[in-house]
Design brief:
Elements (H helix, E strand, L loop, with lengths): L1 E6 L22 E2 L5 E2 L1 H11 L6 E6 L3 H8 L5 E4 L5 H16 L6 E6 L2 E3 L3 H15 L3 E6 L10 E4 L10 E7 L4 H9 L3 E10 H10 L6 H6 L9 H4 L7 E6 L3 E3 L3 H6 L5 E2 L2 E3 L7 E4 L5 E3 L5 E6 L2 E6 L18 E4 L2 E10 L4 E10 L7 E4 L2 E9 L2 E5 L2 E5 L4 E4 L5 E5 L3 E10 L6 E5 L2 H7 L5
Parallel strand pairs: 1-4, 1-6, 4-5, 8-12, 14-16, 15-17, 16-18
Antiparallel strand pairs: 2-3, 6-11, 7-13, 8-11, 9-10, 9-11, 10-12, 18-19, 20-21, 21-22, 22-29, 23-30, 24-27, 24-29, 25-26, 25-28
InterPro entries: Man6P_isomerase-2_C (IPR001538), Mannose-6P_isomerase_type2 (IPR051161), NTP_transferase_dom (IPR005835), Nucleotide-diphossugar_trans (IPR029044), RmlC-like_jellyroll (IPR014710), RmlC_Cupin_sf (IPR011051)
Pfam family, one: NTP_transferase
Protein name: Mannose-1-phosphate guanylyltransferase
Amino acid sequence: MKLVLLSGGSGKRLWPLSNDSRSKQFLKVLENEEKEMVSMVQRVWGQIERSGLGASTFVATGKSQIEMMHSQLGPHVPLIIEPERRDTFPAIALTAAYLYSFIGVDPDEVIAILPVDPFVENRFFDTVKQLEEVVSATRADLALIGVQPTYPSSKYGYIIPESGADSSGGSLKVSHFREKPQEEEAKNLIAQGALWNCGVFAFRLGYLIDILSGQGLPVNYEELSEHYDQLPKISFDYEVVEKAAHITVVPYEGYWKDLGTWNTLTEEMKNNQIGRGTISGDCSNTHLINEIDIPVSIIGLSDIVVAVSPDGILVTDKSESPRIKDYIDYNQGPMYEERQWGWVRILDDQSYEDGRCAVTKRVCILGGKSLSYRMHTSREEVWTIIKGEAEFVQNGNFMLIGPGNVLHIPMKTLHTLRASADLEMIVVQSGQVREPNRMLELYPTWDEMSQHCFKTS
């Protein structure tokens, strides 16, 4: 069986910490067994490896998340790259084409799809392993995992098994689905044996390949990727699940939670404060997550979340936090990005009446990491080194740099650096608004650059 983690969403419900490049699954707000702060994706990947599924697991993600995935999980985690964000059916279709045409997976092999951010116990993955046998034994089109509900939630979808369905073999035949019912209806559904839909399902690879062929879609990964923008923006549930003739579900009785809102996420945080600030002693069920250096004080307020990042500030009642996605429509790019080599924080972004623009950034290059050998086609930069040491190359010329060095990098000038210790610098990038900034890479790594460029000591 091949397991695929879906990681494509932007996570607007956890704004301002989440954005297009750093989705909710990358936020390091959970604590692992070693008391280290980890993200949702790091936590679930650790569980997958401990369950013995690591060697057969892939991550389906978008271009904007590649560096974050490599930064948090390592460079060797196999990624299936979406050219753009187009909902879950296109993402899973592309995944199937990749496994079929690029990896050469047999059409009879079972593929299990799992959201990247479930908060579950380790034994949940024992149930995931059962999906392979269930698909083979029942010959079902799809096999799902349904969580035994602990209360009548209106936040989750429900899987309703057939009345009197035989549970032999550990699975039940599915009758129908109900999406986010009101609480009273949820009570009735639970009384009928309904299960929470946790978004985990499995199928024979050939089942989905046949669906793609039937729709006239390419089953070759490269060809489907080239025409990806022509695929319908529709969920896998609507396009495939609701049309399947035979669906079975494996019940799971154990802890499971969707950490998609500030309300549910803070319930699993070990500390009620991360970052600089103060929460007064008379506050109750109040959380502060602060990623900037300005202190935040919360006095006499209960049942709230205050989240602060370079992207903005959120103050919300916990029960109302899911509404944030209806209010976030700010015309700005991410103000903080985590990269494979470090991180970038936007300090200031200005455009002027004469057509000039200037962006000021604080940039960190981690020790031992390097930038690609690159040039900007229409921006010049000034680097002021404030911490650390590095080797710096500009147009083939080598020098050592450290705190106090100021470097001018004109437009169309090749440059790179490799940090010997964690290096921080202030970068001022300027140019003309009408000329979009493009970055061209000559060599992606320091080793490739050093093989082709003259270096003196």
